[in-house]
Design goal:
With about 325 residues, this protein is α/β, with parallel strands linked by helices. The protein has helices at about 20-25, 30-35, 70-85, 100-105, 135-140, 160-175, 200-210, 225-235, 245-255, 265-275, 285-290, 320-330; strands spanning about 10-15, 40-45, 60-65, 90-95, 110-115, 125-130, 185, 215-220, 240, 260-265, 280, 300-305. It folds into two domains: about 10-145, 3-Layer(aba) Sandwich (Rossmann fold), CATH 3.40.50; about 160-330, Rossmann fold, CATH 3.40.50.
Length: about 325
């Protein structure tokens, strides 16, 4: 198929979750540079649309509300009609799943772009090949190769609202914390198999305070409070529990800390967007695929996949190994 040099309108589809939506921002600048006058929209499920708020490269963000049962079916039909009525020339199915494939098909777009090895590859009349495994934000570029767009130096983009900075700065003032002079640790995860032992996080936090004389703030999402509280109670030298934060306020907190320590998850990519050094602990997932170390400076990970045992959340990574890595990062070596 001959692909035109320009399009009147493009729709990108990635329904969620937070981390994957954020990773897509890696190629927005390159796509906009290729098509400076094109209307470029993005379809995403709520609440993940918050990741794209105020993004300078997108024209419009379209959302699908969360729903179940008959409401879900009705919402999906409504989405089919809404997208078809917009008459997009090119639809990029970044997710290539059942639901996104259906939306792509019923968009009736003349050009439909997806991966050739996906389950519903027959839906696409422009097919991309998946490149070699590397940091996921870089892999996002693979789908653009048929459009003549290659991977180039990039940043992840996430807008932190001024009121979120003010909320965190006011709290920092109350806690007598100075900008870039404290460490954030996030021990929680929505996926249990990705959680390094909370006892290890607690021990590490005590050592950071005593070894480097840096305060430690325990950061958590709303559904991770119990993990944060458990870590706090296990510590002889207490850290500081962060105030309740939404995702945007959490990003503001990360932007003000010197170092983020966390499990594998969306916070790793958020640390890239906020340009905050981070150390992530990996268990069953491929750190080379989900960590930015190979692309950006000041990002590190610890993983020992050969030692991974599902029943043991130590991941074969010791507290001393984490402390040594932190020493290297704080000293700039």
């Amino acid at each position: 198929m001959i692909i035109p040099d320009n399009f009147r309108s493009i729709l990108i589809i990635q329904l969620g979750p937070y981390g994957d939506v954020l990773l897509n921002t890696s190629y927005f600048s390159a796509l906009r540079k290729k098509y400076p006058t094109t209307k470029i929209d993005f379809l995403v499920s709520k609440p993940y649309d918050s990741i794209l708020y105020n993004n300078p490269y997108l024209s419009e963000i379209l959302t699908i509300p969360k729903a179940k049962g008959i409401i879900y079916i009705l919402q999906r039909i409504k989405t089919f009609i809404r997208i078809a009525c917009r008459h997009y020339e090119l639809v990029i199915d970044q997710q290539c799943g059942t639901g996104t494939g259906q939306i792509c098909l019923f968009s009736f777009a003349k050009y439909r772009l997806g991966f050739e090895n996906s389950k519903f590859a027959w839906l696409y009349n422009i097919k991309a090949k998946r490149g070699h495994k590397r940091y996921s934000a870089s892999q996002k570029f693979d789908i653009l190769i048929p459009l003549g767009i290659k991977e180039e130096p990039y940043k992840l983009y996430y807008y932190i609202k001024p009121e979120s900075h003010i909320y965190i700065q006011n709290w920092m003032q109350e806690m007598k914390l100075e900008d870039k002079k404290f460490v954030c640790i996030s021990p929680g995860s929505s996926v249990n198999r990705k959680k390094w032992k909370i006892e290890y996080f607690a021990e590490l936090a005590v050592l950071i305070q005593t070894t480097f004389n840096l305060p430690v703030v325990i950061l958590y999402a709303a559904n991770e409070y119990e993990d944060a509280k458990k870590m706090y109670t296990l510590m002889d030298k207490k850290a500081i529990l962060a105030p309740p934060t939404n995702f945007n306020q959490g990003a503001a907190m990360i932007s003000h800390c010197r170092l983020l320590i966390c499990n594998d998850g969306g916070l790793v990519h958020l640390s890239v967007a906020t340009e905050t050094p981070s150390l992530a602990i990996y268990g069953p997932t491929d750190a080379n695929n989900w960590n930015p170390k190979s692309i950006f400076l000041n990002y590190e990970f610890l993983a020992n996949p050969d030692a991974y045992i599902p029943s043991d959340n130590s991941f074969g990574v010791t507290v001393q190994q984490a402390l040594d890595k932190i020493q290297q990062m704080l000293s700039g070596s």
